[in-house]
Amino acid sequence: MKKEYAFIAVDVQNEFATKGGKYYTPKLSVSFLKNKFFPFLKKKNIKVYEIISDYRPPRPGRREDCCHPGTWGYQSIVPEKLKKETAWIKCMNSPLWTRKNIGNKEKTPSKPYQSPKKFDTWLYKNIGNPQNFIPIVFGFTADCCVLATVQELSWRGYEVWVLKEGVDTASGKIKDKNAILKSPMSNWASIVSWKKVKNHLLKK
Predict the structure, then answer these.
(1) CB-neighbour burial class of residue 27 (10 A; exposed 0-12, middle 13-18, buried 19+)
(2) In whole angstroms, what is the distance from residue 115 CA to residue 120 CA?
(3) Angle, CA of 99, 187 and 128, to the nearest 5°
(4) What single DSSP character describes residue 85?
(5) What is the pTM of this model?
(6) Strands (E), the chain
(7) Which contacts (CB < 8 Å, 24+ apart) does range 195-201 have?
(8) pLDDT exceeding 90 applies to what percent of the chain?
(9) Which pLDDT tens digit goes with each residue over 7-32?
(10) Domain residue extents for the chain
(11) What is the CATH number of domain 4-203?
(12) Cβ contacts of residue 202 below 8 Å, gap of 6+?
């Protein structure tokens, strides 16, 4: 059976993608997403599933304090019309990590804990069975959260694609991105160009 495609945005939030964000660096992928990728998806009425972060403390072992729910930095750059269903909210690099009051700006979050079952439920409800769907992942950063997400998807049996033009590393440097995509990212996913993805979508 021919598989369908599901686009997953990872941490495409102002804190990382937009000037003024706490962990912003210039990234070529942002221009690609805004000027080519999102307009194409709008035209084809293709939705995006989101994994976003709530990085308020406490976060043992991590120093970042950003992406506070209700703030500009927490907001995603994915156009509202493209957003599909409810976003998965994580509090560490791996999407398995959640906590009480995550995403709730009115309440203090608990310490992080892992919940593979909750993440699996979100995946199957939104993305679907690995036998039927190929997740195409984009976002930030290729050397951290995107890599962690891709690994978890691969371990669950998904045939994962990473959109080359749609990712960047924390540094925003092309040489760093190319190095990560070559290894270790290629151990967990196929690195695909926008041209290839677009051709597959146009054939549908």
Answers:
(1) buried
(2) 9
(3) 55
(4) S
(5) 0.97
(6) 4-10, 48-53, 88-90, 97-98, 113-114, 133-140, 161-168, 190-192
(7) 197/5, 197/136, 197/161, 197/163, 198/40, 200/5, 201/5, 201/44, 201/46
(8) 94
(9) 999 999 999 999 999 999 999 999 99
(10) 4-203
(11) 3.40.50.850
(12) none
